[in-house]
């Protein structure tokens, strides 16, 4: 043995060098390796981890509704409406993606969303609260009559009087939201040709969320990307209700694009914009960077619906094609076209970031960015949302109608009816996991590089260390050999033992 370099040293040196090269390679390609592992876990394939979370989210979801009680309705229009916010009326939401179908020919996934809501007793108020609000059925009927002739308008005016319609209604929260209420005008509408009702399906009751519970139609039929090829993101909208553009708007506004909310781009910067498709708005919006912070040990960038996001066109000319006629006020979105022509406008709660004239039209709007903004707080490297606050206010458009007595003197305004909020925060377990993943991404390359250095050092030491170290290593080697020769000598001798065993075996 003495006199030639023992084989174990060559093994150590060779193995060390090989591992060092491997580790160095991993260090250089780390972000690529990491991203492909992450992408495979995020892709919407039947076996991926994110699919399991996506198809039936385990995080508790709450849907909170604030209703505005109109306390001086009797004095309208002589007095400006005084609105008092009530709520939140809180509902636990269960959400499931159903009819999930993969289309491998074009890497897409189609599905519907089934949601159900359960009243939560932590609500601030009861579903039996008596609330006075705008009579939306009458307001819609009057709005629809705006291009009619004089006699038809007079006819509507008499009809409204005959059915005892007023500008306001008093109903329970239950009726206004999910249960709906009956109204003679709805029965009348059922007997009218579809052209006069804007193609809206005939309904027997009206409620803002009537027939939405357990409905497959609330969010519509979605087709999104799977994100299983390099550089592509899952969950980006391709088609909505079988259309690949929005039929309600012309030009650039008809473009259907963006994330449907669950999957966001990675490596976000302060200049990045989040492009989102929001079915409630029937459109794609851009969200802009607002601030940064830390939550549950994770850094985040907060992207918000900003002044320009659903402006008319005073701030952002590209929005003109969304106006659908007169570009009325800034910071509100005319969703009439996608709500069967009902005079509905969406804004941020309390007209936050909207034209100040809207706030001046009613009493009781107290916009507060803390409580009323719509944002995604996103871990910027991984593109994973840590907190989401989705908030909208529904408003009804009113304008004077000289031939309809009830609406002769109403001001031109947007009447706030209610606003909704959905907030989701990452739970601390997932946050911890993400911290680890984030750490792996940030430090993985460094760790591999360090390992490469260490292994290279070992390899170098084994082949060319100074004689006295060599001697010591030899002595150590021999000592160990004396203790338990056959175990340590894993070179020639061990092979021999194996041969002997093999020879013995057949006997
Ligand atoms: C809403 O306002 C009306 C009229 O002022 C009032 O009678 C009613 O009690 C209010 N509802 C609630 C729940 O406060
Ligand atoms: C979609 O899913 C619902 C509920 O799971 C089911 O009743 C319906 O038959 C499905 N439709 C199709 C086309 O698969
Ligand atoms: C993908 O292919 C399926 C049919 O296999 C089709 O129904 C679907 O509309 C296609 N989706 C897109 C976005 O082209
Ligand atoms: C929605 O439907 C479920 C039954 O599937 C019911 O238990 C629940 O009370 C309904 N929610 C509302 C708000 O009506
Ligand atoms: C509950 O509602 C009342 C008004 O009805 C309001 O004064 C109070 O601040 C609300 N409380 C919470 C916690 O929101
Ligand atoms: C609800 O409030 C309105 C206005 O205050 C009142 O006229 C009506 O009688 C009340 N309805 C019920 C069921 O209490
Ligand atoms: C809202 O849009 C609809 C259709 O897109 C249009 O008819 C209506 O005039 C618009 N409303 C206002 C106030 O501009």
List the main descriptive attributes of the protein structure presented here.
single chain; about 500 residues; alpha+beta; 2 domains; 13-stranded antiparallel beta sheet; two-stranded antiparallel ribbon; 13 helices; elongated; disordered C terminus; binds 2-acetamido-2-deoxy-beta-D-glucopyranose
Question: What does this molecule look like?
Answer:
This protein has helices spanning 7-28, 30-42, 49-55, 136-144, 150-162, 173-179, 184-190, 356-360, 369-372, 428-464, 467-483, 485-488, 492-504; strands at residues 61-70, 83-103, 108-119, 130-134, 168-172, 222-225, 237-240, 273-278, 283-295, 298-305, 332-334, 344-347, 375-379, 384-398, 413-425. The protein has 507 residues and is of the alpha+beta class. The protein has 2 domains: 60-426, no CATH class; 468-507, no CATH class. The strands form 2 sheets. Strands 1, 2, 3, 6, 7, 8, 9, 10, 11, 12, 13, 14 and 15 form a 13-stranded antiparallel beta sheet that branches. A two-stranded antiparallel ribbon has the order 4-5. The radius of gyration is 33 Å and the shape is elongated. One 2-acetamido-2-deoxy-beta-D-glucopyranose binds at residues 86, 124. InterPro entries: CD36_fam. Keywords: Cell membrane, Glycoprotein, Membrane, Transmembrane, Transmembrane helix. Its main location: membrane. Pfam families: CD36 (PF01130).
- Cα gyration radius (Å): 33 Å
Main sheet attributes: strand count, strand direction, barrel closure? 13 strands, antiparallel
Tally the helices: 13
Number of domains: 2
Question: What class would the helix/strand composition place it in?
Answer: alpha+beta
What ranges have pLDDT less than 50 throughout 5 or more consecutive residues? 480-507
Indicate the overall shape.
elongated
Strand content: 25-35%
Keywords: Cell membrane, Glycoprotein, Membrane, Transmembrane, Transmembrane helix
Main location: membrane
Family: Belongs to the CD36 family.
Protein name: Protein peste
């Amino acid at each position: 043995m003495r006199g030639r370099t023992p084989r174990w040293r060559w093994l150590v040196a060779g193995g060390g060098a090989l591992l060092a090269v491997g580790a160095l390679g991993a260090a250089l390609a780390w972000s690529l390796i990491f991203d492909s592992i992450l992408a495979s876990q995020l892709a919407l394939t039947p076996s991926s981890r994110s699919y399991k979370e996506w198809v039936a989210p385990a995080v508790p979801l709450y849907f909170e509704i604030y209703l505005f009680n109109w306390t001086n309705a009797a004095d309208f229009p002589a007095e400006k409406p005084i609105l008092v916010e009530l709520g939140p009326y809180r509902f636990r939401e269960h959400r499931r993606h159903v009819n999930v179908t993969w289309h491998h020919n074009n890497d897409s996934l189609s599905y519907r969303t089934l949601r159900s809501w359960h009243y939560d007793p932590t609500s601030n108020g009861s579903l039996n609260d008596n609330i006075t609000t705008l009579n939306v059925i009458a307001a819609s009927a009057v709005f629809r009559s705006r291009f009619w002739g004089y006699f038809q308008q007079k006819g509507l005016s008499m009809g409204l009087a005959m059915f005892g319609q007023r500008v306001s209604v008093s109903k329970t929260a239950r009726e206004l939201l999910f249960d709906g209420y009956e109204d003679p005008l709805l029965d009348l509408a059922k007997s009218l040709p579809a052209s006069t009702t804007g193609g809206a399906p005939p309904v027997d009751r009206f409620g803002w969320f009537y027939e939405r519970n357990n409905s497959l139609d609330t969010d519509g039929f979605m087709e999104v990307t799977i994100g299983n090829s390099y550089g592509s993101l899952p969950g980006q909208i391709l088609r909505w209700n079988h259309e690949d553009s929005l039929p309600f708007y012309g030009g650039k506004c008809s473009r259907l694009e963006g994330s449907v909310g669950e999957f966001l781009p990675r490596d976000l910067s302060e200049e990045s914009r989040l492009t989102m498709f929001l079915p409630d708005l029937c459109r794609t919006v851009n969200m802009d960077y607002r601030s940064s912070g830390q939550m549950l040990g994770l850094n985040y960038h907060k992207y918000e619906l900003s002044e320009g996001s659903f402006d008319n066109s005073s701030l952002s000319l590209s929005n003109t094609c969304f106006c659908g006629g007169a570009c009325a006020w800034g910071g509100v979105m005319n969703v009439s076209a996608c709500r069967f022509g009902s005079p509905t406008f969406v804004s941020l709660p309390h007209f936050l970031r909207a034209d100040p004239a809207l706030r001046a039209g009613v009493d009781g709007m107290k916009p507060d960015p803390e409580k009323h903004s719509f944002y995604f707080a996103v871990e910027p490297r991984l593109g994973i949302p840590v907190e989401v606050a989705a908030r909208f206010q529904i408003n009804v458009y009113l304008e004077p109608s000289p031939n309809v007595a009830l609406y002769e003197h109403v001001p031109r305004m947007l009447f706030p009816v209610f606003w909704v909020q959905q907030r989701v925060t990452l739970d601390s377990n997932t946050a911890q996991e993400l911290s680890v993943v984030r750490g792996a991404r940030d430090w993985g390359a460094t760790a591999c590089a360090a390992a490469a250095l260490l292994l290279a050092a070992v390899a170098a030491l084994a082949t060319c260390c100074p004689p006295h170290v060599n001697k010591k290593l030899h002595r150590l080697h021999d000592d160990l050999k004396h203790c338990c020769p056959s175990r340590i000598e894993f070179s020639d001798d061990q092979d021999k033992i194996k041969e002997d065993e093999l020879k013995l075996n057949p006997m």
